[in-house]
């Protein structure tokens, strides 16, 4: 599997398999060596300033003590704050002895605004199951006042490695600029709070690659996952070759949502694009007169890919039209108001799960919560599992939007997306994503690959805009389609040359 992400349980199994084949303490020593080397890379070499190492009571603290000993032996000025445990492992005891025997200096605490040039966070790793409190919480809060780089070992302390949520209702977590994660990559580093707390992630398997016998049910979304569908267009083709996309939406006061979805479909290469409006449609879209507007009540949806939901509203007419497209057989993208109508109607939800064509749902956390009958906070507490559950219930590919969007399919496989930035946190960007997925479906892409590619492209387009000085503050949804077109053509060009 490309770019696998392992659960804590799977990491534990990999660790146990490795420990059964290696001399005691080998993994901790390798982790210390890898993190010490990476710390110097982060700093650009041996620093003149002071490195602060926070070492907790468990094996993550043992890794940190190894780092302290190594860096001190290299000649760095190292201070260590050690939270001793009642029953440390033999490996951690050995690491503590090494650190004590080195030039590292053990200190009692950290002052606000401490002037270290690097903080190494080894307080708690993947085994933490309760909110940080007491001295550990105080240390994390103090680190939050510092402006230097922060390197987390394995996972930022206080962050759930499986879910990406900060542990506890009133929990805190280290906000790292860099994370070196051991044995295998973890999903919690790429979604939810993990997006803001993990920083740049570096994976080191500590020489255990041959021991990864467990199947990872999650992966990072990358173009390699859909590269086989990135084909250059044949010269002997026409608009019918690339399918029709019909956006069902456009209720009064919300016509813009349907237009945004339609523009995205147009710029991503659909042969023809329609907006089937539930209320009076505009005559045309002046910036994009290629988009055709129709009255939804008399529109022939069959044989076209339908993007249902952008600006659909909740009228009886909208509900009837949604039922009509759900009962059809073509590719179907369900977004926004269409998701809410399905959540409010058990009949529509049942019919949606039975839809015969390829189906993709694109809820944000509140929409997903309505479909699952829970709260948005519950969904956010474990984004992966709720995306999986919704995909299984609806027998559809689900894109759970948000920081680190998750693409899930009914068999439990998920992919986490790392492209994108806060510029996407504005009205209309979800409509653009819906239109983008719709156009890939119209071109014959399977639902899984269409969702993966669209989510990646959507985020990459926002990154392209920010890199060019547009946003993230003030980036608008209407700016995305052109950037998506550029990203898509670049991917196709790259695929053609490989």
TrEMBL record:
Cofactor: Mg(2+); K(+)
InterPro entries: Carbohydrate_kinase_pred_CS (IPR017953), CARKD (IPR000631), Nnr (IPR030677), Ribokinase-like (IPR029056), YjeF_N_dom (IPR004443), YjeF_N_dom_sf (IPR036652)
Positions of (6S)-NADPHX binding: 59-63, 125-131, 154, 257, 311, 364, 431
A Pfam family it matches: Carb_kinase
Keyword Ligase belongs to the record: no
Record key words, sorted: ATP-binding, Isomerase, Lyase, Metal-binding, Multifunctional enzyme, NAD, NADP, Nucleotide-binding, Potassium
Domain of life: Bacteria
Sites where the protein binds AMP: 401-405, 430
Domain called YjeF C-terminal: residue spans: 222-491
Gene3D superfamilies in UniProt: 3.40.1190.20, YjeF N-terminal domain
Subunit structure: Homotetramer.
Job of this protein: Bifunctional enzyme that catalyzes the epimerization of the S- and R-forms of NAD(P)HX and the dehydration of the S-form of NAD(P)HX at the expense of ADP, which is converted to AMP. This allows the repair of both epimers of NAD(P)HX, a damaged form of NAD(P)H that is a result of enzymatic or heat-dependent hydration.
Protein name (record): Bifunctional NAD(P)H-hydrate repair enzyme
Highest classification ranks of the organism: Bacteria, Pseudomonadati, Pseudomonadota, Betaproteobacteria, Burkholderiales
Gene for this chain: nnrE
């Amino acid at each position: 599997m490309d770019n696998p992400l392992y659960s804590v349980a799977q990491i534990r199994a990999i660790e146990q398999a490795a420990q059964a084949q290696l001399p005691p303490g080998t993994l901790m020593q390798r982790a210390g060596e890898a993190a010490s080397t990476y710390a110097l890379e982060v700093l650009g070499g041996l620093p003149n300033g002071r490195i602060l190492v926070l070492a907790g009571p468990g094996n993550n603290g043992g890794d940190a003590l190894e780092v302290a000993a190594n860096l001190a032996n290299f000649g760095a000025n190292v201070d260590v704050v050690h939270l001793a445990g009642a029953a440390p492992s033999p490996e951690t005891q050995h690491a503590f002895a090494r650190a004590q025997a080195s030039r590292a200096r053990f200190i009692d605490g950290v002052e606000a605004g401490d002037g270290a040039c690097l903080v190494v966070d080894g307080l708690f790793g993947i085994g933490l199951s309760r909110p940080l409190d007491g001295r550990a919480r105080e240390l994390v809060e103090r680190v939050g006042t510092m402006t230097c780089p922060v390197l987390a070992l394995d996972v930022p302390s206080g962050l759930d490695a499986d879910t990406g949520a900060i542990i506890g209702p009133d929990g805190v977590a280290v906000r790292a600029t860099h994370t070196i994660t051991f044995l295998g990559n973890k999903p919690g580093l790429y979604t939810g709070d993990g997006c803001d707390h993990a920083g740049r992630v570096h994976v080191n398997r500590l020489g255990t690659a041959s021991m990864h016998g467990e199947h990872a049910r999650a992966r990072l979304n990358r173009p390699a996952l859909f590269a086989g569908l990135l084909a250059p267009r044949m010269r002997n083709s026409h608009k019918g070759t690339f399918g029709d996309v019909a956006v069902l939406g456009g209720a009064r006061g919300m016509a813009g949502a349907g237009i945004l979805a339609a523009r995205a479909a147009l710029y991503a290469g659909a042969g023809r694009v329609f907006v089937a409006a539930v209320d009076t449609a505009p005559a045309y879209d002046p910036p994009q007169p290629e988009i055709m507007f129709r009255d939804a009540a008399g529109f022939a949806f069959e044989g076209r890919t339908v993007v249902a939901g952008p600006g659909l509203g909740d009228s009886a007419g909208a509900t009837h039209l949604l039922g009509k497209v759900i009962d059809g057989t073509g590719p179907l993208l369900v977004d926004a108001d269409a998701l809410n109508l399905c959540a409010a109607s058990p009949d529509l939800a049942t019919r949606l799960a039975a839809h015969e064509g390829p189906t993709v749902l694109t809820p944000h956390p509140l929409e997903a919560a309505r479909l699952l009958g829970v709260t948005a906070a519950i969904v956010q507490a474990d984004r992966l599992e709720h995306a999986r559950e919704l995909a299984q219930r609806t027998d559809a590919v689900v894109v759970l939007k948000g920081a680190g969007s998750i693409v899930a399919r009914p068999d439990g496989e998920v992919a986490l997306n790392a492209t994108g930035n806060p510029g996407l946190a504005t009205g209309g960007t979800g409509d653009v994503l819906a239109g983008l997925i719709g156009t890939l479906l119209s071109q014959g892409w399977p639902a899984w690959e269409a969702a993966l590619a669209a989510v990646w492209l959507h985020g990459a387009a926002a990154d392209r805009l920010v890199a060019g000085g547009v946003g993230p503050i003030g980036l608008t949804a209407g700016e995305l389609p052109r950037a998506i077109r550029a990203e898509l053509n670049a991917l196709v060009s790259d695929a053609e040359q490989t």
